[in-house]
Design a protein that fits this description.
The complex is a heterodimer.
Chain A: H1 4-21, E1 27-28, E2 32-34, E3 43-51, E4 55-61, H2 63-72, H3 80-97, H4 99-102, E5 106-108, E6 112-115, E7 129-136, E8 139-147
Antiparallel strand pairs in A: 1-7, 2-7, 3-4, 3-5, 3-6, 4-8, 7-8
Chain B: E1 7-12, H1 16-25, E2 31-37, H2 40-50, E3 54-57, H3 66-76, E4 81-86, H4 91-100, E5 104-107, H5 112-123
Parallel strand pairs in B: 1-2, 1-3, 3-4, 4-5
Classes of the chains: A alpha+beta, B alpha/beta.
């Protein structure tokens, strides 16, 4: 189960991502705990965690938000493949940055990406997830951290 | 006449967005992009074709990761200059990459300025 300080690592990682990559800070809502799989948006980038911790970290966002994020990054390709690439990269960056606090035994996978309606997010039965709400410009996204 | 010396650049990252970002942000006229690769295996193939002098290298990639690829590139060309650009932010990983032969380490996310400073340091 995630401790408060560990949760802070992911909140700070998310804040840092938007500040640096999008050059515009995001506002982070109060994280909350859920026992049911949270609803996801159009695109979801998933990182599997192994080593001293096990579970998943995923970033899920609507297409409209990803489009603006790509514009802020000077991208001019807004294809489905680029949206998939972006959610994977955001999930990878936030998870990889968490190793600053968790150390190298916090092993992260390459991203896998889900899109479309009602995707199946891999989750251990009985595991609980922390949802970190992200508000950026007029858009909302989520970072979900489910670790044992 | 003072002729400018061009250095050949290869960008290795499994994200197309990151590859384009690095290419766009590079402000050095003397660095000429000769190839990109999405994993370590592709990077070695590209290396054999294009013989780059400077490489930016992601670490978390499918098929062959960046650490293994750095070792192989340094074996093939000891003078190669490698800048690791990775989200992995723990010190142990940076130390390992440098021990394998990388010359610099930049964490994602990064600004254009941070990238160009890291490349400048690499080419010094």
């Amino acid at each position: 189960m995630l401790q408060e300080q560990e949760l802070k690592t992911f909140v700070e990682g998310t804040t840092n991502y938007f500040e640096v990559a999008a050059q515009q800070p995001a506002s982070i809502g109060s994280p909350y705990l859920t026992e049911t799989p949270p609803a996801v948006h159009d695109y979801t980038g998933i990182i599997s965690i192994s080593g001293k911790r096990e579970g998943v970290v995923y970033f899920t966002a609507p297409k409209a938000m990803l489009t603006v994020l790509l514009m802020k990054m000077q991208e001019n390709d807004f294809s489905h493949e680029t949206m998939r690439d972006l959610v994977g990269e955001v999930a990878n960056t936030i998870s990889g940055n968490a190793r600053r606090d968790f150390g190298r035994d916090f092993v992260i996978s390459v991203p896998s990406v889900l899109s479309g309606e009602r995707p199946e997010i891999p989750q251990k039965p009985g595991s609980r997830s922390f949802v970190i709400p992200i508000n950026w410009r007029s858009h909302s996204a989520k970072l979900i951290v489910s670790l044992t | 006449m003072n002729q400018k010396k061009f250095l050949k650049l290869m960008i290795v990252d499994d994200s197309n967005i990151m590859r384009r970002r690095i290419e766009r942000s590079n402000q050095f006229d003397e660095l000429e992009l000769v190839g990109t690769a999405g994993n370590g295996i592709e990077a070695l193939e590209m290396f054999r074709k294009m013989d780059p002098d400077v490489v930016t290298m992601d670490l978390t990639m499918p098929q062959m990761d960046g650490i293994e690829c750095i070792s192989k590139l340094v074996e093939l060309k000891p003078a190669i200059r490698i800048l690791v650009i990775s989200a992995l932010a723990d010190k142990a990983t940076a130390v390992e990459a440098m021990e394998k032969g990388a010359n610099g380490f930049l964490n994602k996310p990064f600004t254009d300025r941070q990238l160009n400073e890291a490349i400048a340091e690499l080419m010094r």
